[in-house]
Specification:
The complex is a heterodimer of chains A (670) and B (590). Chain A is built from 15 helices and 23 strands. Chain A has 670 residues and is an alpha+beta fold. The relative contact order of chain A is 0.11. In chain B, helix 8 packs antiparallel against helix 11, helix 13 packs antiparallel against helix 19 and helix 15 runs antiparallel to helix 17. The longest helix of chain B has 28 residues. Chain B is flat. Classes of the chains: A alpha+beta (670), B mainly alpha (590).
Chain lengths: 670, 590
Amino acid sequence: MVVKEFPRFLEWLTGGDLLLSGAIATFLLIAVGCLFLGTLFGYFVAVMRHGPFEAFYATANTLFQSVPDFLRTSPRRIFALARLAVKEAFRRKIVLSVLGIFAVALLFGGWYFDSGSEHPERTYIGIVTWGTQLLVLMMGLLISSFSLPDDIKNKTIYTVVTKPVRPTEIILGRILGFAGLATVLLFIMALVCLMFVSRGLSHGHVVDGPSQTIASLQKIDQDTGVTLDGHRIPTNTAYLGATSQRDNHRHRMRVIKQIVRKGEPEPTNLSDVVKVEEDADKKTYFRMVIDGQGGHTHSVSLRPATSLDENDSEIIVGPASGFFRARVPLYAESLLFTDSVGVTKAEGVVTGDEWTYRGYVQGGASLAKATFEFAGIRPDRFSTPDHVEMEMTLGVYRSYKGDVDRRILAEVYFESVPDETADRKVKFQSDPISFETMEFDVQGVVFPRSMSGRSLDENGNTLQKGMQLDFFDNLASSGRVRVILRCADRDQYLGVSRADVYFRAGEATYWVNFFKAFFGIWLQMLIVVTLAVSLSTFLSMPVTMFGTVLVIILGFVSEFIRELIKPEAEGGGPIESFVRVITQRNMQTPLPDGFLTSAMEWVDDGLLAILNALTYIVPDFSKLDFSQYVKFGYWIDGDRLWVATFLALSFCAGLVVFGYFNLKTREIAA
Amino acid sequence: MNRLSPFVQKIIYICLIVALLVPLSFIARPASQRGEGGQGDTGGRLAMLRWQYNMSQAKLGEIDPASETMKLMSLGFRSVAATSLWLNAIDAQVKKDWDQVATALNTLMRIQPNFHKVWDHQAHNLSYNISVEFDDYEQRYSWVKKGLLLLRKGLSYNQRDHRFTDTLGKYSGQKIGRSDEKVEFRQLFRYDDDYHASLDDIFDRDSYDAGQYGKDNWLLAYQWFNRSMAMVEQGVAGEKAPMRTKELMFYMNRPAQLRNHVSSLQREFPPEESFKFKWQSAHDEWNEYGAREIRTSSNLRISLDGMEQTEMSMRKWREELDVFAPGVRAKLLAEIDNQISVSPEERRLINLDIETLSEDEKLKARLAMARIEMANKTVDESVLQAVKSADRLVADELYLKIKQAYFRLHVIELDRSTINYQYWKDRTFLEMSDEALVAHQSFYDAHDKYRAAIYDDFVAFDKQQLHPMLDSNGVARIERGAIASFIAGFQFWADVSKNYPSLGSSAFFDIMLEDAGRVREMVDALGRPWPKDFPFQAFIDANPSVAASYRLPNSESLKLDAQSGALPMRPSLEVNVDSSNPVDSSESQN
């Protein structure tokens, strides 16, 4: 999953040490600016209507009247108007149409899913959130764009404005009504989507073979790590088989040997134990496991569970698990790279990859490493503090073919961050653990709380070797700990970004996370409804719809537009691009010099500047989209939600004020 | 002013719509699936046009509701949607979001199911570009298969387009059989029952099963190319598929897979008798291909084995032309001989076997031959000019025939060289021999011993009896080490290349230089000089750049070493490079 921003809400809001850089300061600055410009614009419009002196009084009057209008806005009247808005929306049958489209889409949705996908949960969640977003935004747009222009056109607005109702109440009532209706609809959709995804991904398997017993599995005599059919298997595999094929996949079933030496705690769950062999100094448990495929696996048990006869126990493959996850990650505060000569940098080695999200660490060089520094590492933040779970999504770059039979090797170890105030800055460092990387997959490593390591002085000299270190008491005693990652294969490279290595604090409730993603859609819908209502105070219905659609599109593609505007982007602006298309010139071919080309570039510069400005005025909808967290099984943290909520509400507040003045001045004009 | 009531207007509109629907349904009627005998409704005019131009599914049984719905839903913005999906797939690929790539492609294929290039490009993307992004060979293999499965889906939409089966054959063969991970890929393929099951509706699994060696990707490739040929020659549902590639390449694909199959087996398994028969099949099919009449890009019908016949015809026509102008040709040739001034040295080089020449000598010989050839071409025209006007009509005809034969020879030669025709003809022929099998056994043993670091010859030792093994004369049996085994293998190919010059310029020999590099590595490790009379020395000398990359010494440097007094090999370890005494196969196999 790509995570580029790690917001802390309060810090983001207040700006931390730099007060003026906070969101509140920015918001106030924009609010004052808009108020000033709006007043100026209003004054100029009034000048054209009434002349300069009367315009001054009209503008001042409008401004002063707005204060009681906002302060004396009655919630009761807002709710009454909201009820009217809901009734009106129902009359238009838009809601029913949207529900109908939604139902049809779900009925035939299965046709369009890629059943061969390795992570079907990502496809399912991606499509349902995208589809719902589209439908809800479309519905929000339709119900709120028609309302006011139709009322004004049909003069039914007079039945409202002749009553003691303030313009703020008319706007807020409509927004509340339409948004409330859309909220109910969105909630229903979320529930249905959750059931649709659960049902769509639910599946079972049986053992592939003549019987549902271990007889269907093949005994592995040699621990070469590779099976006859060319697959790699862990060397503790005693039996190998497979499940039946279902939804274009099957799982590998293995019986693995788990050795428990005398004095070590015995396993408590024996439901998957096929047999037990006992020696003088150890017990070997033969456990049945099912390997994961894509994003899920299945539980397995044996019936009767207590049987030690390897041929009689019936293997029961359980339902799919692992599709619906909400891992709670603790991300690093910082990531620094050290190159092969020991220089520390913010960026890693560039391997020529077009996508620069990950930096790379050179393998085999003793000094090259990636250092992740974590803060706030306390036992109470972990659901299982007797061990520490870390997960990684690493990238790999092979600069030469190397050994194709195995994946690239990496090493990881922990290092304490001594308290700056301490007199004697002794550092602890755990012994490195080697592992084979699993590119493009979430790779979990479980560390026992107690691990071997050494202590070092301020200069990095070893003070004591072979120490037994406690993760929380020694390595993360200050609440900060460093995770150091190295590539063990000479001249091969390991790619990491800040979000690629994290501690897994626990597992949150999936359906809550699912609804959080829909909360993002709700925020988007709220903006659309508010925008459409505000625009409809002075624009006709088609223009309101067009304007709102434009803002939605700009909101979704603002990042793409900013990419296009960059000076290094090839092909020029809109007009130049059009000319290149019709004259079949590629983006690199220089255009002939001359007045026309210069004029075209000049106009393009202007258009691009406008586009650029627009991307900063419209809300960035991608910041309100949390679907990727649910798609990839990560918990949407509160900070992210608060930031999104503040952004959306700020924008809506501005739009309400904008709509109010439009309606107010329109009323004056009328 | 219209006086009709709105209700009546609506009725009229509905009637008009229904009236228009009747002819529309008639011309757009889809064809029903044809049976084996080609029975079935051909459908309306639109369906026939769709079938003819392969534009969309024209038959009821072929129509994919998901694809058709998606096309309809795009409301004429299909190209916009397709472009957006392309961009989406490219962006996801850049960001390494492979699931998103697969999803975008899945949708893309549904809205552009009859656009060959889309399938071709994206299948290549999956099998070649995305697969190599993965570090694990099992995941790589899985993405190679995704490309194959995509093409397979494409074939179901485009059943008369042999480019799909061609590409399936190409990827099944080359991507699985020639990648860096070919050994692992082929092993995974061998036991990939799920993939084989996905092909059950097309091929009988035995058709690409190599017996004890299991399912073979090259044989599957053979089957795909065979299907392409059947598509073009016999047709699908009674209609022949149009040929969309050059016939030279199209007909080459199928026979090429058999030799690839046996070449791969030779690398992976100990050589055995059955390989000779596999080479025999490869040779027979190659000959069949050589005898096949194919249309060239210059729209000439030729056969690759037709050079000799064309030359004979040309000679005959020349003789007939010479009858009308007796003695002119001999006189002109003598004059030209002087004009083009081919020196005695050049004549000597032309008459020598080109493979025995140095690079400089080869160049001289080729330039001289080109001058003679150019001069000869002008002779026919001069002979024609010398013919009396009474005989001119017949002579003109003969001259034209000679000219056409010239052109035909040129085209055949060009096509033969394009596909390395003679090389494969000779190679498949030689590989059928017992001697080649023995040479392969030597190489196989050499590789085994090289991996086990047994470089030198050694005394065979009976581990049970704890004493050296004896031969029939009661003398301790000496077994070959890796160096001697390599040299024995090289000896065979060095010998046969004298009689088959086409082999000398092949990539096969380049690969052998890699093995020569291993010999270099081993003699260096043993602190020995380079073997005297190394069988491939001439080839090493002729390919200095490849040889240099393996640090192989050329004859000049060996001479200098000898002059400076480099040590000979130790007598006890001297290896047998006598070609008259190749390795005994039964002994080696033990």
